[in-house]
Every structure is written in structure tokens, then in C-alpha cells.
Amino acid sequence: MMKRAALSLGLICLTIAICFSQELKRKWIHGSEPCSANTDVPFQVHAYTDDTFILRENKCINYEGPFIYLLFGDDMVFMQDTGARPSPASGVAFPVRETVEKIIEEWSAKKGRRRPHLVVTHSHAHGDHVGGDDQFAGQPNTTLVGTRLQDVQTYFKIKDWPNQQVELDLGGRVLDILSIPGHEPTSIAVYDRKSKLLLTGDTVYPGRLYIRDWPVFKASIERLASFVKTHEVSAVLGTHIEMTSTPGVDYPVRTTYQPEEHELALAATHILELNDAISRMGDKPVRETHSDFIIYPR
Q1: How does pLDDT run across 161-189, given as a tens digit for each residue?
Q2: Domain definitions of the chain by residue range
Q3: Strand order in the sheet with 288-289
Q4: 10-297, which class in CATH?
Q5: In angstroms, rounded to a whole number, what is the distance separating the alpha carbons of residues 235 and 176?
Q6: Starting at the edge strand that comes first in sequence, how are the strands of the sheet with 43-49 ordered?
Q7: C-beta of residue 247 within 8 angstroms of C-beta of residue 291
Q8: To the nearest whole percent, how much of the chain has pLDDT over 70?
Q9: Can you tell me the distance from the alpha carbon of 12 to that of 270, in angstroms, rounded to the nearest whole number?
Q10: DSSP H or E stretch at residue 112
């Protein structure tokens, strides 16, 4: 019955449960209550297109349940983030590299090409986005970009941080890299000219927008707002879901079961809404709840 339902939705599933559907309003794996009863795969893999993959980490591995992105070009595959490591005492499997390599292997076979070079980057340097870095360090045909600001600037060739916007050509697929510190000093946004997706990390997503440096964050959002006013954006994709499907209501921190999640995708208008809100606050940030996110100064 499930197979017939999948086919009726126009999905094509590969051997590692990759389902092709250019659709973001979908049900992601969202944990269990209790986690001891969880039977979900460690990483759900969704092929938004045959060159764009979205991974969602099982919330019973780590309550953060972060999203990971893979963008394929002719020469390189761009990976953003490596997930949130489980507690060493948990004994839970964390096969992030194994999952990614399987996607690359199947992509290469389908395209009839040799394996592209894997570039592992980060939306920012917080622990729940770099947990699998050690699995990629020193691996063949792989570049792991460091988490220091100097590492980020050097790899992307950003000389004027955070004002300079740069390009990264994956081979027939160009990404625009924007510096957006404020949540964390090395935060970046990534705009894919092919899919028109805008990846915004922990800076903009359906959840609590934790702000560490208010003046820097304000300037970053202003730049981001200017960008979306002049570029077509099909969806704004962050790295968590913390809001429920009820407007203005979030799940508590450390929740491992989110059966009524907000959808992953936001829109360019949400960035404009955020920019207007923080502009009105001036130099005195306050916690402010919106339907799809919460401004959360720390």
C-alpha cells in the first residue's frame, strides 16, 4: 500500500530510501516518544531534484535534528554541515559520511560520471553542525573547510568580511556566498542560482533565532534583505525546525518528538519581515514572537 501511495505522488525511490520530488511541504522524520521506540533511519534523504539533496538527522540521535544540504555540480559536490553528534554513551549510530558517500555513488552511476570532488562546508561553527567533521577529515577526493573565520575566508576567498559577496563555481552550477555573522561569527548564507534556493543556516529558519551579536546580526539581515529584493528566491531553507504548525508556538528546547512541525521552507518575505522587525527595535533588542519564527536575543 505504501509503495502504491508513493508512486501516486510521483516519487522515485532509490536503494537508500532517496525519494525524488521537487516538494518541500513534506513530512520529515521527527523523532519518537520515547526514543527507545524509534525505528527511523539515522538520516532521511530527500532528493529535491536529481542534483539537490536535503538530509534530516534523526532527532533521537540528537534533539537538534539538523538539516544537511548537498548540491551537485559537474566538478564538485557542495555539502553544508555534518550534523549533530550523539552522546558517546548512547551507542547510537551516526553514519553521516556513509550516507553521503552512498548518495554520491548513486548520483555518479546515474549520471555516468566519475565521483565529483566533495567540499564539506558549514553554515556556521556551532557543535550541532560540525559533529561529523572527523568522518570527512583526511578522506580521498574530499576537502573539509575548517571552522575558524580565517578558514572560511581563505577557502571562499572573502577579503572583505562580512561585506563581500563571492561566487563558488561547482562546475555548471554557481553558488553565491554571503557573510551573515551575528548568530555566530562565521555564519554564511548560500544562494544557488540553479534552484533559486537560499540556505540560511541558523540565522533564518522556523524556530528561535538566537542572536549573539545584535549590531552585527542587524547588519547581516539588512544585507540579506537587500539580496532577496534583487534575486528570485524559490525557498529559504534553514537548518532546524523548532516551530509547530500552530502560528507563533514553538517546541520546547530538547524536544525529541515533533509530530506537528512547521514546514521547513520559509520565503523571501520572511527575511523582509525579520528585517523590518529588528529595524524597529533599534539598539534595544527584545524577544518577539512571529507566526513562523521567534526573534531571540541572548
Answers
A1: 999 999 999 999 999 999 999 999 999 99
A2: 10-297
A3: 208-211, 294-297, 288-289
A4: alpha beta
A5: 15
A6: 12-13, 19-20, 43-49, 52-57, 67-72, 76-80, 117-121, 142-144
A7: yes
A8: 93
A9: 32
A10: none
